[in-house]
Each structure stands twice: as C-alpha cells, then as structure tokens.
Amino acid sequence: MSNELAIEPHHGHHPHPSGIVRWISTTNHKDIGLMYLVFGITMLMVGGAMALGIRAELFRPGLQLMQPEFFNQLITLHGLIMVFGFAMPVATGLANYMLPLVLGAPDMALPRLNNWGFWILPPAAVMLVMPFVMGLLGVGPGAVDTGWTMYAPLSIQSGWGMDFAIFAVHMLGISSILGSINVIVTVLNMRAPGMTLMKMPLFAHGFLVTAILLITIMPVLAGGVTMVLLDRHFGTHFFNAAGGGDPVLWQHIFWFMGHPEVYVLLLPIAGAVPHVLSAFARKPPYGYRAQVYAMWAIGGLSVVVWAHHMFTSGMSTGSQLYFMYSTMAISLPLAVLFFCWIATLWRGAMSFETPMLFAIGFIVLFGWGGLTGLVLADAAADPQYHNAYFLVAHFHYALYPTTALGSMAAIYYWLPKWTGHMLDERLGRAHFWMALVGVNLTFIPQFLVGLAGMPRRIPDYPLVFADWNMLSSIGAFVLGASHLIFIYNVVKCVRGGPKAASKAWDGAQGLEWTIPSPAPYHSFETPPAIEPSPGHGLSAVR
Ligand code: CU1
Q1: Which of 60, 201, 356, 411 is the most exposed place for a label (fewest CB within 10 A)?
Q2: This model's pTM is above 0.70
Q3: 451 C-alpha to center of ligand 1: Å?
Q4: Dihedral angle of Cα 391, 341, 486, 432, to the nearest 10 degrees
C-alpha cells in the first residue's frame, strides 16, 4: 500500500491557528524545524556581518575603523554567534524537519518541549547581542570581549556584557539540552516498525550521537559559567589566582565542552552527507555499519581529548603525550568516514547537481581542516602554532565546510521536499563556486601569515603581513556575498519553480521520498509498512 493514501492533513484536529499565534504556539515538527532554520540563517548573517567588520579592519595594517576594545567584542560575538546561534540551530532545524520524515514518524516525540526549546533561543540571542548594540549607542561597556573561550581571569574582570553572555549561555544550553532529549526519545521510540537501530538512516545516527554528546557537555559549560558568575559577584575564587583559585581550571572546563562541540557540529553533517552522496552517485551509502561505528567512536573519543587546546598552559609531559595520542586517534574513525564517503562515489553514476557540489566541497575542504588539525595536535609542534593565525585558518577549514557547506548541501537536497519546488540550479552553482573561491581566498592566506608568526585576535599587524591580509579580506567579502545568493535562491524556491515530484532526485532513497512534495503537515499518521533495505539504512515502503 502506498503511504500517500494514509495521509490526509487536518482530519480529526481543531483548525490550526494562523498568523503569529501559529508560530508561537506550534508543536509541529516542520514549523519548529523551519523556525530553527530561519533563526540559524539569520544569525549566520549577523555573525557574518561581524566577521566582515573584523576583515574590514584587517584589510590594511594600522587601526582604520575601530578601537581594539570594539574589535575584541566583534571576535567574541562572531565566535559565540556562529557556534551557538547559527551552526547548532541550523542542525537542530534539520533534525526537527527531517527526523520524523526519515524515520517514518508522525512528529517528534515531545512536541511541547520542542516548542519551548526553540522559543528560548531568540531571547538568548537578544541577551547576547544587546550589550553590543547598547555599546554602539554609547551606553555601557559593550558586549563580552574575552574571545568565545571566555578565559579567566579576563572573564572575571570584563564589563557587564559578560554577565549577559553568561545568562545567554545558560539559556542556549537549556535549549540544546531540551532539543537533544527530544532527538534521543524520537530516535529510540518513533522509528517505523521493523526499522531497527542498525537499519535506520545514517542521518538519524549522526543526530543520536550528537544529542548524547550535547547532554554530556552542555551542563558542564553551564556549571563553568555559573562559577565565573560567582567569581564576579559573589566573592568566590574558583578561577582567581589572587584568591587561591586556578585560571587553568576554567580552560579544562571550557574545553571539556569546546572540543566535543566540534563533533556536535560535524556529526549531524556526517550523517546527512551520505544521503546526498548516495542520491547523486545512485548507489547506497558504502560501509553503512563502518560509518555508524565510526560516528560512535568519534563521539566517544571526543570527550577525552580536550586538553590539546592547552599544550602551552604548562602541563606535564605525560599529560601532553596522552592528549596528543588520544587526539590523533580520532583521525582513525574520521578516516573511516572519509573512505566510506569516497567509496560511495566510486564507480557511481554521478551527476553534479547543487547539493552534490556542496557535499563534495564539504569533503575536500573538511579534509584540509582535519589534516591541519593533526599538525596542531602534535604537542611538540603546537607552541609554534598556538594563538597564531594558523590555528584560525585550521578551525575555519574544519567549521565552515561542516556548518555552512555541509548544512547547505542538506538544505538544497531536501528543499524540494519542503517547498514542493525544484531549486534554480544555475543560482545554486553560482553560490557554490563563489563560496568555494571565497572560503579558500579567505583562509589560505591565514595559514601563511600564521606560519610566519602573525598572532590571532589583534586589530593591527606589522606591514610584512599586509598583502596576505588584504587577499584574505577580499575573500571574506566574496564569501559573504555568496550567502546572499543562497538566501535569494531559497526564497525563490519557496515562492515557485518547477514542480518537484515525490521523489525529487532520481537516485534519492529513503522514506522521506515516498510522501508528496511538499511534505504534508503531518508526515506519517499511520506508520509506513517498510521494506528495511539490507544494510544501508535507506528503507523503502513495501
Ligand atoms: Cu579540540
């Protein structure tokens, strides 16, 4: 029986509220997923504008546009906004929209909690950015200016923008813990009958590991920033050396969250990309089991390697060796994922539509991020790179391909399912090539100036670094402009375009392609009778 017969939106329900009330009160996974995506992309624009402010100041040596205090606020907010405001909400939006669709479920397991989890986000973002806006208007000391790592003792001495950041981190943490609980409960309880854990799509595995990681690390960060708050206002000395505290303790707490956070950003994409590769190579994902085990291994290892960020903080040789080797060990499961992705393409009947371009772009550029990370993980070499622009280039090569190219691959891939329209391929290609040129032009020069010794987090630099910095700034503006094409293309696809079939892409497999495009308000009111496909996680309807 085809599923489409079982779906008839609205039957047996009260009429849905419309207008703003609909969005505030909605418990529908698609509405909430959409709000997460819109919120995340909005924050990408805000954080991106701040990055362009940074690059504009660094276009030439000397201070042109801003004072160092303001520059510090920009780098801090750029980091916090991109990680907590853009990357995580976009991933949560994908989870909300797509998990019920790929699992054959009617909705997420905990819809009211889902609503609450989203609506904590906008006030948190306002709280983070408000001191910045007030500072611009000449009121107060401005936003948090410690760098996104919020290192003590700076975070204890900084102005009240820091207190706002602490409360914002609390709220962001609550939001992602609620979202994670929902993902775990949904994946464990809402799968279509017959879809065992080892037959569910890789997309769901990626989010399951991510959600467990988030529940492990976010409370630790919340506890850490609470200790900073106590140090600032309530006379404790957790991180204050003058009172017998230890600033390095903060670094341990922060990076216990901060390192797994990288994999929180990677694993949802590592789960989504195989769907795209397999659709456009017209082959099932290669090495399904290996990919699942690799994702779990990455998740497990990611919580025991954090102090590789702290090699220069004065740690014993034994600890350095441990954190060096454990960090390098992560490259093994990561290499398994890479080989599986490449093997999925191997001898496939490939075509290069926009989502495929972004998926391949993600693999190649993220490979660069990973390889340069190995250099930094070497405890003996790290002092050369620590706090230099090499590091900045490395983590942007790790994070931009993942959070932007990877999530855009997923968004372009599922956009026909969301809107019922095919996207404009020409614009999609233009977006891809412009982003590809932009990201490389921005960050390759940063590797070079970093190796030559340019430190990070400075608004001014010696003349000798001028040419590379100018190129990097030009690249950043190209990259920024490419995002405008993205937004225009998505809006265009929402408003119209060639009609998308239920199965929008030839080679696409999985339950989400068995229901109409656009997907109806309630996805699978009757659990689909599935034909669990042997060993590659993309079930078909019987
Ligand atoms: Cu790390």
Answers
A1: 60
A2: yes
A3: 20
A4: 80
